[in-house]
Amino acid sequence: MSAVVGLAIALGVARLFGRANKEESRPGFFGLLQWCVLLVVAVVVLRGVLAGRPVAFAALPPLLIALFPWRFTTAVLVPRGMVRTAWFVVRGSTWVWFDDNRGGALVAAAWACLRGGGQPRDVAFVERRLGDDAAGAANLLATGLLAQAQGDVVAARRGIDRLVEFEGRVAPAQARRLAVQWCAAEAASRDAWARVAALGDDRDADATTTLLAAIARRMLGRAPVPEPSQLRALLRRVPRRAAFAAAVERACVHEVAADVVAPPPAPPAAATAPPLPAALRHHAALLGGDARGRAADVAAIEALCKAWDLAFEDRATAAAVAARRAALGAKLDPWLRLRETVDADLLALVHARGLPIGEDPASKPDSFGRLRRRVRQRLLDELELHADALHTRVRARRALPVHEEWREYLTLRGAYDHAIAMTGMGLHRLAFQAVHPAVCALAVWLWNDRKNRVHAHQMFRWLLREAELVEDAEAVALQRRNVDAGK
Amino acid sequence: MSDAAERWARNPLYVLELPISATRAEIERAGQKWLAMLELDLAAARLYATPLGPRARTPELVREAMAELREPDKRALHELWWLAPEDGPAPAPDDDGSPPDADAALGLDALTAAGWRRGA
Amino acid sequence: MLGAMSERPVYVGIDLGTTNSAVAVFDGETTQVIRNAQGATLTPSVVRIDAKGRVSVGAPARRWLERDADNTKSEFKRLMGTARALSFPASGQSATPPELAAKVLASLRQDVADQLGIMPVTAVISVPALFELPQSAATAEAAKLAGFERVELLQEPIASALAAGWSAREGDGRWLVYDLGGGTFDASLLETHEGFLRVVGHDGDNFLGGRDFDWAVVDWAIAEIAREHGVAIRRDEPAHARAVSLLKHAAEEAKVALSRTDEVVLSFAGPLELPGQVAIEPELAIDRATLERCIAPLVERTLDVSRRLLRSHDTEPEQLARIVFVGGPTVTPLLRQRVAEALHAPIAEGLDPMTLVAQGAAIYAATSALDARPAGPLVRRGVRLWLQFPAVSSDLTPHVVGRALAGDNTALPRRVALARDDGGWHSGWLELDGERAFATMVELLPRRANAFAISADDGAGNDVPVDPRSITIVQGLTINDPPLSRTIGVALASDRVQAYFERGTPLPARRSFTHTTIESVAKGSSDSVLKIPIVQGEHDHAHLCRLVGTLEIPGSAIARSLPAGSDVELTIELDRGGRLAARALVPTLDQSFEHVAQLLVPAADPEVLAASLGTLRRRVDDLRAEAFRRGMPQLISALERAESDLGEIARDLGAAQGGNDDAGQRARRNLLEVDAALDDLEQAKQWPELEQRAVRTMTWAGNQVAQLGTEREQALFEEIAGGVDRARRDRDVRELQRQLRLASQLGETAWYRDPDTWPMLFEDAASHLDSATDLPKAQALVREGKDARTRNDLAALRRVTEKLWKLLPHDPEARRQGFDSGVR
């Protein structure tokens, strides 16, 4: 009798929570129903346990799993890389993932796959389920995790970073929470503290993210700089606190400096050296540093450019080179070719490292100015090429699986953001002009023919934002219509 | 390694261990000697010094180096790029093995700590 | 001789020619051209398969060339590397060009065996300087089919220079190798310096060869026949082919005869029969002066090429140490005389232009230590010494490096000594180091084979027998590794080329670069393929280079989908024979792909060629019209050259349509050359054009923005104008194009606000209604648009017009020039 009454109450509550809606961050009708049933069962089992019935003891573990499937999965199944089990268990987890428990199951499976070392069978399992499935935020997180499982952390970062930009309406809080945490952890692993600190302000930042952000502020010396006691307090709220303890202690003893950019390293060449060997030594230092995985920064590149300018202006060297050229009987001017190779080296170095080299508004004739122009040229060339390939594919209607489409869009967007970050806003308008037609065509195709509204809407929103930034009135009008169509 | 560093390390004058002033005959002689020693797998031939650190010497590299130095145009350029290997990059002042990012390093593998990566 | 030969090494060189082939052997000091069963040094590159399937090669086959052309094939070298098989209808057999070449090679190999008693297992085979990879690969395949275990390929000019240089007594200098073959002319500038041979440069004319000299005589004869008999024989008329062939054969003979006598009468193997006409047997006499007149323009063209080559390498003709003549047509005294006079340089005398290449190839075999003797039974006569030394050395003091190999139970030597046979030099005792190795320089006597005796002892004076006990090093001119004739690289999506191996790179070679994909490849999808085209050529633009192979990563073969932006590590390898292997490693997939498709010279389909010829003609016409309009005399004269080349191509195309594949291949290659030349010309005039466009665009857009733009747009326009100015100052084509696109976009945005704009654009779109892809829908839209116009609803009118645009055909998409490359 009491069970029937409980059920009736639960049904009433469920109706209050509204209709089931996959894209809403609210529990669906069936989720509530499931929980109500479980609650009743739990009461029955608990009474059995209190009464000391062995059957009730046997039913306790399955009940606990059924009550807290997500907790169980992340604590037990994921670390053991149990992909299939994780998937099945989370399919029933309606309270954490609400009605998007399909997506949640995918996240769990991808996560387990990642922890299991990305075994081909597991990857295939997740990929099959990602397939042509609807493109919810959870699916995007799963796609990113899968990329990481396959060893492509950059692709994972690109994908999951974008997810953080999603609005709550299409992104269940759980997916965003995990995404924000992942991004913070990933950035912290690279010591990219500025990014970590920024993520700490996200509305879906959880305890782990908050701790990482606090560490970041301490590392950067950015206000409010947390005291060691505050850091330790935050640590206590983190689920996996043992793993962070040592780092927190290191952060506590980290000397807090003002938030300033580190000064450029002094050129290694002695001031008295003749200009050509000096430039060569400098060049070798940067290339060698690059070879050892140490980054060159923009200031170092600029200093190197100056060293080369000095060398190229040196008349004595130029005369010696000319004499040597004549002695060897060389047809081409080695001096010119040296300049070309230096330019190409610098371009490759800046490009490979993605250094924010900035713009060259004054069109300076020196090496650094030339380098800036060439970097800009190359970035635009690549962006156009990329966009062109996408556009051609869209025109030819060669469809990719849904998550691959999204990944391709993210790659293009990544290249776009990267290009702007490297050279500055002057490139923005040209870059937008390069990608707008292709991305717009892709989004329209997804929207009209492939009914993938979620991705298309996100693409329109992005295009609108960018169009506003570059003040392209035509594009703004167009994308506003497109975005409105999705509301 | 970047293509540029790779190219520099392949400078024929390093590969053949010759000075800029080497004559045509010296180039051929040195090349022939290194090829012979590599063929016999002699330890003395396996490595050569460059400003970017030692590199492995291979028969392909030696043959390419000889061909490069035979061409006056290419040789002239290689001579310009030559820098005594021991003169190579002085360790940069901040070369204490610190990791690449500009921000201060903490050595926290947060992805693993948070459970987002398979632990070692 | 025979006995002496088998004791000494045998180095075999083969000149596999278009019309004739030859083989020579080198023993370390002298070269010897091998005579065939007929006693001739030249074996015609002709193969015949008769009705009973019997194969004959060389002169016996050559005799059937006119009588039974269907079953007798010549000039198949030109088809090397194509997919075409040649059929022998009488026996019902067919054979690929490499199979036919293999028959010639096998015959030459047998000649060596007959004469020296040794069946050679290795050889060096010469190939034209500008052979493409598939052609080289086909040549290597032919050698394999002929029974050679190992071959190396050598470029013909290097072979001739090596042979000429070997016998030369004078020292350093630059030489011109003037190689006039059957169908091509090659000029090479070489330099000997301190005993080393180096190719300085190369130039050539693919349109010009000994056959053109014959054709010049044939054309003269056709004109004479037309004058005397009133019969018009046409070279491009298939029905006249037999008569033309008879004429050509007669012309060839007359040309050779005229190098000895002053006048000859053309003799035909039979009457000239033309369909629907009486057969004629004309009697035509030709004298030297006439021949000279016929060939003078052709000789002049070879001289132009030679002068161009010298000029581009800052060499005055007077500086040439000598001219080396190679190829049958250069036997003509007239030609030799004319060339020597024109270039004021001495001719290298005493060299046989017909077999020089084979001799050079044989000498090269020695340089590469390619002893042709089959390996004998292994007899160990002491501790094995593993020795490394050059078989041929131009250096007078080369290194000998050695290492004693631990044998069974024999005491190892502690020191080694080398002594030259003539007693003039001794190394003294050389202590073996920790690796049981030694290295020493030995002294050579110039221009001869130097033998060194090797002795060893245990350090206490007790002799330790070693194997080998002696080595021989020949001192003379050398060239070390076969250089690559043309740059090989990968075509990128931007139509650029990433060079892997530059021209002159010594083979073998191997190089890796990392590319990035620009397109996604979906797993399992059959229409999704990532292509990595491998091209050969000296141009920066991929579409002007020759496609020699494509590595494909198909959706059907990948374990997972490959997203755009993935890395692909591509490794290309070339062996000494010029064979290409490529491997693409995709780290994210952990898969590698090695299948290189289409390693073939593309087929020369006459229809396709005719279409591209038409396109090129139109391009020339357009360019010329523009050049006249704008008064650009240099462009006009450059176009004249392109036009005359196109004329030649049209002739070849005519022959190709008549069934001549070889001419088709020639036309294909030369079309590419002209394409490249026109690209250069267009590039040269691109900038002034772009500048004019900049002025027009900026004026128009500036007006629109000034009248109809918002304040912010006007400020933006100022910024863009700054960018345009900068790009113009830097002469930066791409940047200027980009900025202009921005400017016109801004101009359009403003222009669309003009109330007159959309009615006008609507009218324009409606006027193209006929070509709409969906006519009923377009008609409905036009009706809707007219309504909107009457209502003066501009927003609706715009919507309608934009929809209408979508129904109208696009401009044909710019051709994908980079061979559809999927990587950058």
What would you say this structure looks like, in words?
The complex is a heterotrimer of chains A (487), B (120) and C (824). Chain A has 24 helices and no strands. In chain A, helix 2 runs antiparallel to helix 3 (54-67) and helix 23 runs antiparallel to helix 24 (473-485). With 487 residues, chain A is mainly α. By secondary structure, chain B is mainly α. Chain B has one domain: Helix Hairpins, CATH 1.10.287. A two-stranded antiparallel sheet of chain B has the order 1-2. Chain B is built from six helices and two strands; from the N terminus they run αααββααα. With 824 residues, chain C is of the alpha+beta class. Chain C has five domains: 1-168 and 348-379, ATPase, nucleotide binding domain (Nucleotidyltransferase, domain 5), CATH 3.30.420; 201-346, Actin, Chain A, domain 4, CATH 3.90.640.10; 383-468, Immunoglobulin-like (Sandwich); 488-597, Substrate Binding Domain Of DNAk, Chain A, domain 1 (Sandwich); 606-748, no CATH class. In chain C, strand 32 (567-574) and strand 33 (580-586) form a beta hairpin. In chain C, helix 8 packs parallel to helix 9 and helix 16 (757-767) runs parallel beside helix 18 (794-807). Chain C is globular and about 115 Å long. Chain C starts with a helix and ends in a 17-residue tail after the last helix. Chains A and B meet through helix 7, helix 11, helix 13, helix 15 and helix 16 of A and helix 1, helix 5 and helix 6 of B.
Give the radius of gyration of chain B: 20 Å
Number of helices of chain B: 6
Helix content of chain B: 40-55%
CATH architecture of chain B: Orthogonal Bundle
Radius of gyration of chain A (CA) equals 28 Å
Across the major sheet of chain B, the strand order is: 1-2
Head-to-tail CA distance between termini of chain B: 26 Å
**How can the largest sheet of chain B be summarized?**
2 strands, antiparallel
Quick structural gist:
The complex is a heterotrimer of chains A (487), B (120) and C (824). Chain A is an all-alpha fold and 487 residues long. Chain A has helices at 2-16, 29-50, 54-67, 69-77, 83-90, 94-97, 101-115, 120-130, 137-149, 153-165, 173-189, 193-200, 207-220, 228-236, 241-253, 275-291, 298-313, 315-328, 334-353, 367-395, 402-423, 428-448, 453-469, 473-485.
